[in-house]
Amino acid sequence: MDNPAQLPILPPMTTDCDVIILGGGLNGPPLALALAQAGLSVTVIDALPQAIRADDAFDGRAYALALASQRLLAAVGVWPAVAAKAQPILGVRASDGRVGEGPSPFFLDFANGELEEGPMGFMLEDRHLRQAFLAAMGTTPGITQISGDTVVAQETGPGGITVTLASGRTLSARLLAGCDGRASGTARRAGISRSGWGYGQTALVCAIAHEKPHEGIAQQFFTPAGPLAILPLTGNRSAIVWSEREETARAIQALDDEGYLAALRERVGDYLGTLRLEGKRFTYPLNLTLANSFVAERVALVGDAAHGVHPIAGQGLNLGLRDVGALAEVVIEAQRIGEDIGALDVLERYQRWRRFDSTALALGMDTVNRLFSNDNPLLRAARDIGMGTVNAFPGLRRRFIREAAGLTGDLPKLLQGRAI
Amino acid sequence: MSETSVDAAEVAKFEAMAAEWWDPSGKFKPLHEMNPCRLHYITSQIAAEFERNIAEAQPFAGLRILDIGCGGGLLSEPMARLGAEVVGADAAPKNIPVAQIHAEQSGLAIDYRNTTAEALAEAGERFDVVLNMEVVEHVADPAAYLQACHDLLRPGGLMICSTLNRNAKSFAMAIVGAEWVMRWLPKGTHDWQKFITPDELFDLIRRAGLEPLDRKGMVFNPLAWSWSLSDRDLSVNYVTASRRPG
């Protein structure tokens, strides 16, 4: 009974790393950086080879980063690499418009000076963000990257989770973070079902160069077919996110560049002068998909894998980064008090923190879309009056601006720009 | 009990018991809910006393820690994960193989023993930290028990001791609430007469030759459904830190 055993001072490593992150897109890398900077060992798996993910050509995709998201990028050390390439959003104008009629006289007009923290957000091109993530992961100790391989199986055991890759390799960790998008294989393999529905709408996405400056103002027109956003990029360029009914979108996408631009010009009006396409044209069918649980034993879902939302107001990326901040904080705090970071009771803290917020936002965006994608004259009058009302009251306006900047709710430390 | 004397059916039984101990929504749910709060206190006190940075890997490396009344290892495992050399002691023989099996599954080396604080002290074992959590209210002679805890500490060593206060509120919460109404704990788990007020505990600690350093309340918030530390509210659950001088 009394055998002062020859105990090793360090416990044996039984898993290959602390955390496996599946998906090296927009949520996986900042999560990997936050965890590795706190001393955890992380392996990031992505299906695409690094050369493709680091491609320098502008493909037309860009993101509206809320101020809180920018702070997270700063906290994980990525912001300096992209700061000079980001366009500050100095104001937001939302108005109700009909093709050929132009915007209604009532519109929401938010200016930058109304938020003491600085610009309410930034527009950042996909290529710059991806390159900065890859570069930061490459120089951060504790991060191993596996590119061009996919996970074909995962198995949860009492001490860890093991994934099998298409290449035949197996890897184990205490926790698997599924950052693998709205068709998340991580969720499916963990037996997590999803709820969701389509909208019968498709988003047309492209970037344009224009004659006149945008002055850093983001415009959102609510048209009967769906919202159209014109978001400022650096120089005289803007990103377009334009929702139309499925069949209209298909017809517009089938047009040649000239025809496409003509259709766009009809909706945008002429305040930007002449327009020219930059990069590729994309289409995304709009649908809402929510995982019925964000966690399982040794599994956590992040970003679109947990909640794919309608891209109104560009909240998808910002919601995902809130997940990243919350999961990193929960995991690092658990690690520091010696808890098992993959245990269900630890992961449930993350779920409690994020689930209500993201589901409420997903459903809120859905309501906004249903309300605005409508040509009923009564509804149209009501929302014109509603917008005018919000615009007239400083308190309401402030709430809207702070909400858009991502500064409301129970913010994870990283989104306040603080270390964990 | 040596491992070779345990047959396969026994192992299966112990595995099932380990799973039960570690199921956060199972029989030991109240303990799991309270555990992060206890761990926050324990880790911050150890880090302060031994000048360790909990943001570093294996911050408790080189420290020898005793967990008295270790049960399934809910405190022993976190201490081992933080790098400490851990001895888990439990007077109930059936808890030892259960805790051992779970530690092996978790890849942790922990020395679990079916013994008591008094027996370990008598055998001359010494530790940097003694965890004495929710035990003192169950022992027959608290003064003798705390003397053994003192003897188990190296000079400069730290004892963390938590227990339940004795007043009308603790009777309502811990006996009526937890045992009779919520059924969180089996009836008869606690004998309210044996609960100790913080002043009585500090008095016992001093008489055992230890120097009290700190005391905090552990308060359950039913809205957030979680436990947190409190500087002011020690009315039901509370936790203390004390040091062996030298």
CATH class of chain B: Alpha Beta
- Based on secondary structure, the structural category of chain B is alpha/beta
Helix content of chain B: 25-40%
Oligomeric state of the chains present here: heterodimer
What is the CATH H-level superfamily of chain A? Answer: FAD/NAD(P)-binding domain
Gap between N and C termini of chain B: 37 Å
For the record, give the distance between the C-alpha atoms at the N and C termini of chain A, rounded to a whole number. Answer: 43 Å
Our count of domains of chain A comes out at 1
- The CATH superfamily of chain B is identified as Vaccinia Virus protein VP39
The total number of structural domains of chain B is: 1
* Overall morphology of chain A: globular
Based on CA atoms alone, the radius of gyration of chain B comes out at 17 Å
CATH topology of chain B: Rossmann fold
What is the number of helices of chain A?
12
Keywords:
heterodimer, A: about 425 residues, alpha+beta, FAD/NAD(P)-binding domain, eight-stranded mixed sheet, 12 helices, about 35% helix, about 30% strand, globular, disordered N terminus, B: about 250 residues, alpha/beta, Rossmann fold, 8 strands, about 20% strand
Characterize the structure shown:
The complex is a heterodimer of chains A (420) and B (246). Chain A has helices at residues 28-37, 50-53, 67-75, 79-82, 126-139, 185-189, 246-254, 257-268, 315-336, 344-372, 377-392, 394-404, and strands at 17-22, 42-46, 62-66, 87-89, 91-98, 102-111, 121-125, 143-147, 151-156, 161-165, 170-178, 194-210, 217-223, 226-233, 237-245, 275-291, 295-296, 299-301, 307-308. With 420 residues, chain A is α+β, with helices and mostly antiparallel strands. Chain A has a single domain (17-416), classed as FAD/NAD(P)-binding domain (3-Layer(bba) Sandwich). In chain A, helix 1 (28-37) runs parallel beside helix 9 (315-336). The longest helix of chain A is centred in the last third of the chain and has 29 residues, at 344-372. The model of chain A is unreliable at 1-13 (pLDDT under 50). Chain B is 38% helix and 22% strand. An 8-stranded mixed beta sheet of chain B has the order 3-2-1-4-5-8-6-7. In chain B, a hairpin with a 4-residue loop joins strand 6 (211-221) and strand 7 (226-230). Chain B is globular and about 50 Å long.
